[in-house]
Write a structure and sequence with these properties.
Blueprint lengths: L5 H10 L2 H6 L5 E3 L2 E4 L11 E4 L4 E4 L5 E2 L1 H8 L4 H11 L14 H23 L2 H9 L4 H6 L3 E3 L5 H6 L3 H9 L3 E3 L7 H4 E3 L4 E7 L5 E8 L7 E3 L15 H7 L5 E5 L2 H9 L5 E3 L7 H10 L2 E7 L2 H14 L8 E7 L5 H8 L1 H11 L1 E2 H12 L4 H16 L6 H14 L5 H8 L21 H11 L9 H5 L9 H13 L5 H7 L6 H9 L7 H34 L6 H20 L4
Parallel strand pairs: 12-13, 12-14, 14-15
Antiparallel strand pairs: 1-2, 2-3, 3-4, 4-5, 6-9, 7-8, 9-10, 10-11, 15-16
Helix pairs in contact: 1-24, 3-4, 12-15, 15-16, 17-19, 18-19, 21-23, 21-26, 24-25, 26-27
């Protein structure tokens, strides 16, 4: 999102009709000022899914799904955020601007996409004309339907076939080099054509596609013997292997109800799993799973399972995946690890056991991240006695510090303490594991979480439903929130200041501005709650009154603490500054009582 200007997202939400976006995908029925439908995200017979054109927001009272037009494209069409922006902008005839440094201009990028698509078609045609390549895929158990679904092809056994077809001009050759489809020798005698040759030769070709189905790159597998066994496209203007997942486009196209993604290691593993009815399989592209991979996965599903061979290389890959997963390990997400029998991979295992047995392995044998971490630390480190526990603490410390603060980190620390004999108290774990685990578990919610029915919660809800109300709130009222200690008060203050600096017209615009911020999820939940305020003028009055009461209550509590300190201090008394503060608070609170009712 950082590469797309926020002003453009504001404009996109302002110009898009959420009713048209959603109505193009599900049947909406007008109900007063809003629209309703059976929710597309869970099974129901009575409509509980409502769309508000005024707020540019949708909400399901059945399953809790909610969001903006962009959120709907991400959830329903399973698009990552940038692709959802592209899709919505395209429907409005807009071009997505990119901030400086975002890469190639759009026109050039579109030309490259078109060229990659034509190359993929050429490889598909080559497969149909090569009996040896087709026999290889038959021996690997691939049926014609799955070959077509994944657009699998064949690169002819030639040094210049691709070059001859698509490199007839200087510009054509330049683009082939830019896309990594041909390789340029650093120095060679002869003309330009002799210095260039095809990267992929005599290989089964697997197109790597983005969320919109555009070909970004290729993976090529040798048919007989040869090295490397797999050859991937290099990094290009279109392709960044640490971001893309093979099979993710096909997962989205399957329209299966997804609860998890299964990450495997090979192209053929993905294709065979889909063929056998496991449509949740994806693969990394010759690299370890990266934090960017995990961010994309958790945009789609709350759970991921990594499947690895049971040999030494598989265990090493699993340990790297665990380490890279820790920054994304938070409550509400599940990360598990499945180790296959030695000598087996998902391709051969599902062919031998069948789909049902394979899915049983997924559900019964995949280890939770916490259990895998305990097992791995126990295997790697001698844990007996005080010295052993110290070594475990030393190894666990940097791992736990990668986990975001919150409930999950606390639970993970507790599990390690239980497994390796540490004291299971917050102080004991903090001391022995060297990690801050925050408040006790029952108080471990985020600092900005809002109490049910609190004044802060009411004020934020009013702002989300009527963001225009922020414009008329006096600056001194907002600054008064600095001293308010209620949970969420500083979030409320930030909202007010930002909406005064950059006014928003709808709920949707506000939520999109907070999409990538930690409190965005809390705001989306509050936006989904109904409000009985009839309009913006009433919202302004109620918001102003709520802020006044919050500041007033904070002042009273501060005054009570100062008076109690004065009584307890005896002869020592209060400082001059504290006495002046008592006078100020007494005058201010007396004035408030004369013009407004108390809480």
């Amino acid at each position: 999102m950082s590469l797309i200007p926020r002003s453009f997202i504001d404009e996109l939400i302002a110009r898009a009709s959420i009713v048209e976006v959603i109505g193009a995908r599900i049947a909406l029925k007008k109900a007063g000022h809003e629209y309703k439908a059976c929710c597309p995200f869970h099974t129901e017979k009575t409509p509980s899914f409502w769309v508000s054109p005024e707020k540019q927001f949708y909400h399901c009272f059945g399953c809790g799904a909610h969001g903006t037009a962009l959120s709907f494209l991400m959830e329903h069409d399973r698009l990552p955020f940038p692709e959802a922006v592209e899709e919505l902008a395209s429907s409005l005839g807009l071009t997505v601007p990119r901030e400086q440094g975002a890469g190639a201009p759009r026109r050039t990028s579109e030309t490259l996409y078109e060229l990659m698509g034509r190359v993929a078609q050429f490889y598909s045609q080559s497969l149909r004309g090569d009996e040896r390549a087709r026999r290889y895929l038959e021996r690997r158990g691939l049926n014609p339907e799955v070959i077509e679904r994944f657009a699998i092809g064949y690169a002819p056994n030639s040094w210049h076939e691709l070059l001859k077809r698509f490199g007839g001009t200087d510009e054509g050759r330049r683009r082939l080099v830019e896309l990594g489809l041909v390789i340029e020798r650093e120095a060679a005698p002869g003309g330009q054509a002799e210095r260039l040759y095809d990267r992929f030769r005599d290989r089964i070709m697997f197109p790597i596609r983005d969320a919109r189905g555009r070909v970004l790159a290729f993976g090529g597998r040798v048919i007989d013997q040869g090295e490397p066994k797999y050859l991937n496209s290099p990094e290009t203007a279109l392709f960044h292997k640490g971001r893309e997942l093979y099979g993710l486009y096909e997962v989205r196209q399957s329209r299966a109800t997804l609860a998890q993604l299964l990450v495997v290691e090979g192209y053929l593993d993905v294709v065979r799993l889909h063929q056998f009815g496991v449509p949740c399989a994806v693969a990394t592209l010759g690299t370890a799973t990266t934090p960017e991979h995990l961010k994309r996965i958790f945009q789609l599903v709350p759970s991921v399972v990594f499947a690895f061979d049971g040999d030494r290389a598989g265990r090493a890959a699993a340990w790297r995946a665990l380490q890279n997963s820790l920054p994304e390990a938070v409550e509400g997400r599940e990360i598990r690890f499945l180790f296959l029998p030695e000598g087996e991979d998902p391709d051969t295992l599902i062919a031998r056991e069948g789909r049902e047995a394979f899915e049983n392995r997924l559900s019964r044998q995949a280890l939770l991240l916490s259990e895998y971490l305990v097992r791995e630390l126990g295997d790697r480190i001698p844990t007996r006695g005080a010295d052993g526990r110290a070594r475990v603490a030393q190894a666990a410390r940097p791992l736990l510090q990668q986990v975001p603060e919150g409930i999950y980190r606390r639970l993970l620390a507790e599990r390690l303490a239980q497994a390796f004999g540490f004291q299971q108290t917050p102080a004991g774990m903090a001391e022995l594991l060297g990690v801050s685990i925050g408040q006790p578990l029952e108080l471990g919610r985020p600092a900005s979480a809002l109490g049910r029915g609190s004044l802060v919660r009411q004020a934020i809800r009013l702002l989300l439903h009527f963001p225009q109300a922020a414009a008329r709130i006096p600056t001194e009222r907002i600054e008064g929130l600095k001293e308010v200690e209620e949970p969420g008060a500083q979030l409320l203050r930030t909202l007010l200041l930002e909406l005064q600096a950059e006014p928003a017209a709808t709920t949707g615009q506000v939520l999109e501005r907070w999409r990538e911020r930690a409190d965005g999820v809390h705001l989306a939940r509050l936006a989904a709650a109904e409000t009985l305020v009839p309009g913006a003028p009433a919202a302004e009055r109620e918001l102003d009154q709520a802020l006044e009461r919050l500041v007033d209550q904070s002042g009273r509590r501060r005054l009570d603490r100062l008076l109690e300190k004065d009584r307890a201090a005896g002869a020592a008394g209060l400082s001059r500054e504290e006495k002046l503060e008592i006078q100020r608070l007494t005058i201010e609170l007396s004035r408030h009582r004369s013009v407004a009712p108390g809480p």
